Amino acid sequence: MASRVSSPLIHPESTDFDLFKIMSALTDETRLTIVVTLAASPGLACSGFKQDVTPSVLTRHFRILRESGIIRQHDVGTRRINTLRKEELDHRFPGLFDLVLSEGAKQVAPYNAASTA
What we know:
By secondary structure, the chain is of the alpha+beta class. The protein is 44% helix and 12% strand. It has five helices and three strands; from the N terminus they run ααβαββαα.
């Protein structure tokens, strides 16, 4: 099945993770909220996020998280599923992501999922 978009999804290899690119991606409150939400609800589709930004802005936030290596996305039919790359991040930067999730949960609350199906 062909992707619903013309360009392929870019996911860096774990050996190419850049700590500063990852940390920069997490400085935005919307992106941090997406990460905290995915930690609480793994495998959530983009449409499952109830957000206060436009769909195009949300798409940009997902792209930044994906291209920095924080999330992995794949298409299932017309839905784009999101998962954290926690295991890969933990392997590359031990303990970092646990700290991010712990501190992030103090800063932001997960989105209430609009739909997990």
